[in-house]
Amino acid sequence: MSLPPLAVLAAYALFAFGQAYAVLTNLTVDDTDNTYWTFPGYHAVTPSTPCPGCVAQPDPEQVFNRSWHDGGLCTGSFAFQGSAVYIYGIDITNPANLTFTMSNSSLTSFHFYSGEEYLYKSLFFSATDLDPGVHTVSWVMKKSTFGGQSALFDYAIVTVDLADISSLASRSASSVSSSAPSASSSATVSSLASSSAGSITSSALFASPSGISPIKSDVKTSTITGASVGIVVGLALLAALALLAALALLVALLVFLRRRRSITTNTIDGTLNSDGLNATSRSTRMPTEYTIEAFRRLVPPPLVHSKSSHSRSMPTVSVAAVPSAYIPSTIDTRATSSTVVPAACDPSGLSGQRFRDLEVQERLRHLEEIVAAFQPPSYS
Known about the structure:
Helices cover about 30% and strands about 20% of the residues. It has about 375 residues and is an alpha+beta fold. The strands form three sheets. Strands 1, 3, 4, 6, 9, 11 and 14 form a seven-stranded antiparallel sheet that branches. It has a five-stranded antiparallel sheet with strand order 2-5-10-7-8, with no helix packed on it. It starts with a helix and ends in a 7-residue tail after the last helix.
C-alpha cells in the first residue's frame, strides 16, 4: 500500500529534523601538534626555531601558522578520529616521492611534484567517507629519479562529528580515573557539551586517538551545522504543504462560486415548460395582441323606383331568376372596396380563409342589391 504524498513529505520532514543532531565540523591540526603527528628525524621549522641550513626556504608568511616540518628520506604518521582527512604540505623543486597508506583501509596514494616554484597548501593525501573511528595515515619518502630526497609537511584537516567526539571524551575521562578525573578531561567534556550549537571558533578540544586525556589544539574550523540544514528543510516542506493546501482551497472556492452562479441563472430564467421553452422564450414567440369585433351585417339601401315604374313596389327578384343578359357585365367595385370589411375590424388578425369567406359574402350581397335595383323591361 503506497503512502499519500502528504504523508511522505511529513515523514521526510521528521527525518530531516532527526538528522539535525548530526553536527559535522572540520578541525585544522597544525604540524606542531605532536599528539597527532609523528615526525622522526624531521626539522621543525618555526619562527622561534628557523633552519638556515635547510635547502628548502619557503616564504613563512604563506605557510599555515608559519611553521612546517622538513624531512629527508624519512617516514611519518598522522593519527586521528573522524570521517575524513586531508594532509597538506609545501611542494618544492625536485622533491622526494611520497607513498601514503592508511590503517583499516586498503587505500594507497602517491604524491610527486615536478614544478619549478614553491606550491603552498598543496594536497598531499586525502580520504573521505570513513567510519567515525580512529585511523592512522603513514607515509614513506623515497628518492626520486631526479635525486629529490625531502618533503615539507604543513597541516591537516579532519572532519569529525561532535557527538562522536563527546562520547569518546566521556569514555576517556572515565577510563583515566573513576575517582579524580583530570582537569583537561573535565574541560573537554564541558566544552563539547556547550558546543551543541555545532560551532567551534578559535580552538577546539579534540579527543586523542590513544585514548589518553584529550588535549587542546589551536585550530581553524569551518562548521557545517546539520541542525540549521534540518530546520531549513523542515520549514521549506511545511511551506510547500501550506501552499498546496491554499491552492486546493482556492480551486474548491472557484468551483463552488461557479456552480452557485449557474443555479442562480437558471432560477431567474424560470423552469422549462413541457415544450422545452421557458416563460421568457414563449412570450417572445407570441404574436402582437389584437382585438376582433363582431361582424356587422350591411343593410342595403332602400329601393327607389323611377318615375316610369308602376305605382306598386316590384317584388324582389332572385338572382337565379334573372336572365344573364340583364346582369351587367361590369360591376364597379371601387366604391365598395372600402365596405368589404368593417372599419372596426382589423383583417390582419384573421386567418386568410376567414377573410376570403367574408369578402365573398359581401360581394354576393352587393350583387343581390344591384340585381334588385335593376328594373327589367315590361313584356306585352
